[in-house]
Amino acid sequence: MTDFHLKRGIYSEDVEREPTRAGFGRGLKQAGEGNENIVALCADLTDSTQMSKFKEAFPERFIEIGIAEQNLVTVASGMARAGKIPFTSSYAAFSPGRNWEQIRTTICLNDQPVKVIGSHAGVSVGPDGATHQMLEDIALMRVLPNMVVVAPGDSVEAEKATMAIAKNGKPSYLRLAREKTPVFTTEHSPFEIGRAYVLREGDDVTLLGTGTMTYQLLVAAKRLEERGVKAEVIHVPTIKPLDTHTIVASIKKTGRAVTAEEAQYAGGFGGAVAELLSEKLPSPLKRIGIYDRFGESGTPDELLEHFGLTGDTMVSNIMHFVDTTPQYHR
Amino acid sequence: MAKMQPTIVELEHKAYALREDLVRMLEHAGSGHSAGPLGLAELVATLYFDIMKYDPERPNWNERDYFFLSNGHCVPIQYVAMAHAGFFDKKELETLRKFGSRLQGHPERTKLPGLENTSGPLGSGLSQAAGAAYTLQYLDKNPKRFVYVITGDGELNEGNIWEAAMFAGKYKLSQLIVFIDRNNIQIDGPTDEVMPLEDLHGKWESFGWHVQEIDGHNVESIRDAASMARAITNRPSVIITHTIPGKGVDFMEYDYHWHGKPPNHAEARRALHKLRTLDGKITGEHE
């Protein structure tokens, strides 16, 4: 079995839930305690992005930028030049949505260790609607040279990921969610940038999840098992650099794969896996995500269900794939 | 770095020496911007050889002043000044825009020690400089270092500039000193036709900045304005620096068509002749 420490009781109704942004808030404060060069900049969303914890602890190292996302990341670039490790936060729709070129030129090409924290990503933002439901950020960030892209699975992992990007010396994007989501990792679960983790072993199909979708795949795998399908579930919190070794090794065994992300299915995590497989190990692949459309208003649960992004709604999708697709490499 | 204060005449000569190398360099490159860099020769010469504190032997010296070029396309004049200052051999100027060169068409910090930022897409250099100035003033609490910036005037069309202007005004970043290269041209024509900027003085003042206006070809004015800006301790400073695009080469002056192209061989010869004549060094045609 895998030695990933899955939390107990994660399949019960009263599974612990917390938004990933809360883990970021704790992680940033902790990182700030360990390194006085860490500074935090926010574009008028300090509480929402949970940067407020850092602000309370280190008011002299918090810089309010106002509603100006281009300035947010370019001021951060200059602070990095002057020796700081700047964390910038806003909603993902605005940063990196509004300021992509500034991130490209002044952070990535300029190779400065600025951290772009995009909170409120995905349709689960809910009632705010499509304008605020960022679905293109993974694709936008993943294509940039020098950029590290991390989408933590839950709040516990978000805390670890925050501390890890504080130390990696690279431009980094951290994708966070607004809503409470199930906590399935523990403080003992490993987290390393660039590593994917096998959460559950199986040899019928590989299920690859990033961000909070990994939990939904765990739920789906449980249902699939009841139907006689043994799914291997791999959590891929780092989208770039991608842990190609772990992914390829699993699909060599299972012969087919499904990806899941709360984002556009084109160009994002599923896109990254499709690129990998088509070059290294051509295999049948089903990408679960948002299919070339925008979100809309609704409750988070309604929307996730509508878009087929809950474990239960994924089951029929995956079953159909398993029933109609041969296993390669066997 | 301890250095002798140059005389006004020495700085004027330096500006023309930079122009000569600039023209040779652009001709050699076969592409690049002529008008803006020529117009900036006095400003860049005065910054590098009088105003700024730096050490070419130690580009990351932690007592240096920062220089952020916001209008990255004008970097050729900065490269020439850096070569004259000893950051690298003048011979390397011939590699401008060539494959494998550290002198990229637009400046890249990671390629060439001594550059503080990567720029080209307009409007972002001022924010980067403001970030460095904020760090010096509030985080490092080091009042001895200054952050100098050159922006274009066409560049002021960018919203990012005004976000930075608001930010620097709010935090009273008094170690931030910005020179606007007010040469009145941009690619599509005169700035006042493309997107009028006036009342420029009033705009910056209303954002909380200390504003000066100078003749950008008068090195004494440049030096004095920088000195005044350093003495202002409760606001960021902007110096609207009036320049003539293509300055020193009569057939390029005031002509926006020279914004984005280099001289060919014959034009370079004419330009060099003009520059040397103006400088009073020679009166004939030399190569």
CATH architecture label name of the largest domain in chain A:
3-Layer(aba) Sandwich
Identify the CATH homologous superfamily of chain B: Thiamin diphosphate (ThDP)-binding fold, Pyr/PP domains
CATH hierarchy class name of the largest domain in chain A: Alpha Beta
Order of helices and strands of chain A: EHEHEHEHEHEHEEEEHEEHEHEHH
Helix content of chain A: 25-40%
Strand order of the largest sheet of chain A: 3-2-4-5-7-6-12
Q: Which quaternary structure do these chains form? A: heterodimer
Summarize the structure.
The complex is a heterodimer of chains A (330) and B (287). With 330 residues, chain A is α/β, with parallel strands linked by helices. Chain A has helices at 20-34, 52-57, 69-81, 100-109, 137-142, 155-167, 213-226, 244-254, 269-280, 300-306, 311-324, and strands spanning 17-19, 38-42, 62-64, 85-91, 115-119, 148-150, 172-175, 180-182, 197-200, 205-209, 231-235, 238-240, 257-264, 285-290.
Question: Would you give an account of this structure?
Answer:
The complex is a heterodimer of chains A (330) and B (287). In chain A, helix 2 links the parallel strand 2 and strand 3 (62-64). In chain A, the strands form three sheets. Chain A has a seven-stranded mixed sheet with strand order 3-2-4-5-7-6-12, sandwiched between helices. A five-stranded mixed sheet of chain A has the order 9-11-10-13-14, with helices on both faces. In chain A, strands 1-8 form a two-stranded antiparallel sheet. Chain A has helices at 20-34, 52-57, 69-81, 100-109, 137-142, 155-167, 213-226, 244-254, 269-280, 300-306, 311-324, and strands at residues 17-19, 38-42, 62-64, 85-91, 115-119, 148-150, 172-175, 180-182, 197-200, 205-209, 231-235, 238-240, 257-264, 285-290. Chain A is α/β, with parallel strands linked by helices and 330 residues long. In chain B, 40% of the residues lie in helices and 11% in strands. Chain B has helices at 8-29, 35-39, 41-51, 75-85, 125-139, 159-170, 191-194, 200-206, 219-231, 265-279, and strands at residues 66-69, 147-152, 176-182, 185-186, 189-190, 210-215, 237-242. In chain B, the strands form two sheets. Chain B has a five-stranded parallel sheet with strand order 1-2-3-7-6, with helices on both faces. In chain B, strands 4-5 form a two-stranded antiparallel sheet. In chain B, a hairpin with a 2-residue loop joins strand 4 (185-186) and strand 5. In chain B, helix 5 runs parallel beside helix 6 (159-170). The longest helix of chain B is centred in the first third of the chain and has 22 residues, at 8-29. Chain B is globular. Chain A binds chain B through residues 39, 60-61, 63, 65-66, 68, 70-71, 74-84, 86, 101-102, 105-106, 109-111, and chain B through 66, 68, 108-110, 116-121, 123-124, 127-136, 138-140, 159-160, 163-164, 166-167, 170.
